[in-house]
Amino acid sequence: MSFAYLVSLLLLGSIAFALVREMRKASPRPAGLRGHIRARGWGLLLLPAAAMAAVMTGHVHALAVAELAVAGALVTWAPRLAAKLAPYALLALGLFGLILAKAYHDGFSSQVLYGLVPAGGGPFRRGFVLPQAGVFFVLGVWLLLRVEAPGAGLARTLIARWLDPRRGGISARQGLLLIPVTAMAVLLIGPRYWFGLWWMTKPVVVLADAAIVTASLVLVFRSRVWAATVAEAGLLVLGAYGLLIAAFWPSVPGFWYGFASLASPSYGTLGTAVQGTALLALGLWLAPRVMREHEMLPADAELAARAQQLTQRVQTLTRTRSDALDTAAAELRRIERDLHDGAQARMVAVGMSLQAAERLFATSPEAALALVTEAKESSSRALTELRDLVRGIYPPVLADRGLGDAIRALALDTPLPTVVDVDLPGQVDLPVTSAVYFSVAEALANATKHAHARSVRIVVSQAAGMLRAEVTDDGAGGADPAAGTGLAGVERRLATFDGILAVSSPPGGPTIVVIEVPCASSSAKTSSC
Amino acid sequence: MRIVIGEDLFLLREGLVRLLTAHGFEVVAAVASAPELLRALVDERPDVGIVDVRLPPTHTDDGLRAALRARGQVPGLPVLVLSQYVEQLYARELLADQAGAVGYLLKDRVFNDDQFTGAIRTVAAGGTVLDPEVVQKLMVRHSRTEPVARLTPREREVLGLMAEGRSNAAIAQRLFITEKAVSKHAAGIFGKLDLAPSDDDNRRVLAVLAYLGS
Is a pLDDT exceeding 60 seen at residue A462? Predict the structure, then answer.
């Protein structure tokens, strides 16, 4: 008793405090009765709510009088605060309706004036309590959002989340079905004992009911798909159960199947049969929708994102493939021209010299000898040219020893002091190796030719499926991939392998060229990198 | 002089055999793959093994590796490695054991048979013969690095020719100076590279190694 007294005192105190604070805020004085009513706005609803609460107590009570007085004071002097409190008053009335319905259901029989109906006279009147409570709830939530009362943001977020179209194709209504299904199940499985389980006494049943209701509400807000799925299962089970009851178990006092009391044989059986059929039909209607929803996972949004990714990928591949083909064609053309003008021409010269030598051999051996020497030199030069050509196509040391030694060999052939640090534990695809080799060669050539560097450092490493090469020089800097053709060519070459080139080269240096390529080229081949 | 040849291309192998036989060398084995070559080198203990870098079975640097393994089993076994291309990396690996008796030449050098047979004899005698192309790359690279930077341009030139396996007389002829002047330059090189007095051939190998290693 002293606890309730303390709570009421605190409550009244805080209301008085809020009231005083609200009154301090200056507001224009309205004129006339209509002006007064308009200025009070939704706060006026507080008066009927307080009246209803006072009437429900049934007799004159000090608390009821205090309640009415507070409501009147709020509406008169603090209309804005009253407006913010009104939705909560409505929600409280709804909550009270729920409690009342439960009490009637569990055997409470006194008459209570709830809203417009004096409930408690009989089952028909009692039946109005729950719908009215529902109306109060809906009104309360609507007003909460309308007047932006505290908590409106949270409610709006929850609702928006639940209605979010990206959350799957099942409509909001279908997920909502879980609420009546839960209510019906809670009613059905018993006011006093759960299926006759003796240890499920009343407080435990209340707790269990509360848990079930909370769980289904959480489900409704968290995942409409799963709410609909559970509702679907509930509809089928409850429907089938209703038909079973109607057929074999006509009279069970104290149990309700939806709106039908199982205590009355004739009316109850008919109601049960009708409701059971309706539930089963609804369940069967919902079933294909729910199943389709589950088959369609992942949700449409994800599919759309994936489709967009694939489109971008196709665009990239189309571009890089076309670049790769162009590069390959240009390369073949260069090789053809080099062979044609170089080694091939020299071999023709060798043949001609030897043929002339053959003719001169008998008559002028000395001239023949000179021609043979010339042929030998020509063939030697042809070999040198072939060697250079082969190096440009695929360096032999790369074929013999792999990327690490090939880069070491490259560094040895560079006039600059070059430090090489290679750590390649895994296998790398051959085409990737070649692309990285030539990229490093280009970066090294730039450092030597353009940057006037004093030393170069090359670090090649492998991590998370990526091959990374870093070429750092202490030269003049100012390298720009967009300006020269060399680095731009490297960039195109790497793009074929989904590789990237990054250049940091501030004026004054140092220049850092970073090359990163996935170890396995994007073919079907696998690679252990 | 007994020779073992490891070369997989029939035309080149037969050409080498013909050339060497014509110059009075005795070819005791001419094989076409790395395992055969290793066996021939170890069993025959030739005066010089002439080895192609690229041999079966993998057609990468099997020949080079077989030659290195043979030298691991028979220290100082004279080996002349031939290749279509030369790499400083491989030159270093061949010279790494500091035993000398190593040659590393482009295949085209066979065209000049005097130079080629000279190289074989130098290698057989424990000297070092590096291809002029390797030496040229060394020249470009080492103009600024220690300790080779301490050498005068002339000394560097002499060191390069030493690396190519030329004798003092040949170097003198090439540079149009007297043999005595060459000896003086050589002494200067050995001094600047901190090579203690020992027999001349070994010091030449070490000087070339220092050259490669710097």
Answer: yes
Handedness of CA B58, B64, B67, B73 (dihedral sign): negative
Q: What is the pLDDT of residue A96?
A: 81
Residue A141 is predicted with a pLDDT of 87
B61 shares contact with chain A (CB less than 8 Å): yes
Q: Per-residue DSSP letters for A453-508?
A: -S-EEEEEEEETTEEEEEEEE-S-----TTTSHHHHHHHHHHHTTT-EEEEE--TT
Q: Are residues A364 and A463 in the same domain?
A: no
Complex-level ipTM beyond the 0.85 threshold: no
Q: Binning pLDDT at 50, 70 and 90, where does residue A161 land? A: low
Express as a percent the part of chain B with pLDDT over 70: 93
Domain identity same for A319 and A217:
no
The DSSP code sequence of A357-399 is HHHHTTT-HHHHHHHHHHHHHHHHHHHHHHHHHHHHHS-HHHH
Answer yes or no: do A267 and A374 share one domain.
no
pLDDT of residue A525: 46
**Per-residue pLDDT tens digits for A38-63:** 767 788 888 888 888 777 766 666 77
| Cβ pair B53:A400 closer than 8 A | yes
Domain match, A67 and A216 both: no
* Residue A169: half-sphere exposure toward Cβ, Cα within 13 Å: 15
A400 vs B60: CB contact, 8 Å cut-off?
A: yes
Residues in chain B within 8 Å Cβ distance of A390 = 84-85
Give the pLDDT band of residue A523 (cuts 50, 70, 90): very low
Place of tokens 């209510």: A183
Range of the domain at A209: 171-297
Choose between A271 and A524: higher pLDDT.
Answer: A271
Looking at the fold, whether A147 and A110 belong to one and the same domain comes out as yes
Contact at CB, B85 and A387, closer than 8 angstroms: yes
- Sign for the CA dihedral angle at A463, A467, A471, A477 comes to negative
- Is the pLDDT confidence value at A160 over 60? yes
Domains of chain B: residue spans and CATH: 2-130 (3.40.50.2300), 135-213 (1.10.10.10)
**Across the interface, do B89 and A396 touch by the CB < 8 Å criterion?**
no
Is A415 within 8 Å of B141 when comparing Cβ atoms? Answer: yes
Residue A438 lies in a domain: yes
Q: Lowest mean pLDDT: which of A188-202, A460-474, B136-150?
A: A188-202
- Is A289 in the same domain as A414? no
CB pairs < 8 Å spanning A and B: 51
The one-letter code for the residue type at A115 is: G
Please indicate, yes or no, whether residues A416 and A372 belong to a single structural domain of this protein: no
**Residue A430 C-alpha, separation from nearest chain B C-alpha, in angstroms:** 14
A383 to chain B nearest CA, in Å? Answer: 7
Task: Kindly indicate the confidence band of residue B144, based on its pLDDT and cuts at 50, 70 and 90.
Answer: low
